[in-house]
Amino acid sequence: MSDPPTKVRPPSSEAKDAAARLERITELWQRLQRTRSHTPEYDALIDQIRVETDAFRRIVDANKGLGSKNPKD
Prior knowledge:
Layout: H1 13-33, H2 40-62
Helix pairs in contact: 1-2
């Protein structure tokens, strides 16, 4: 007898936060590409990228091992 189908759970709030932060990081990098280097705006963007990246990394690290055990997923 086969196992019953598993219900697809909606993304957790952590997953939504991680996705939003990743999108924000991408947007900041795109802005950085259009910004002249060695300016206050450039430096501020670098700082924002670091903050968002650190927050994203904390979310990912906190959830390690909670997902699928199948490396192909």
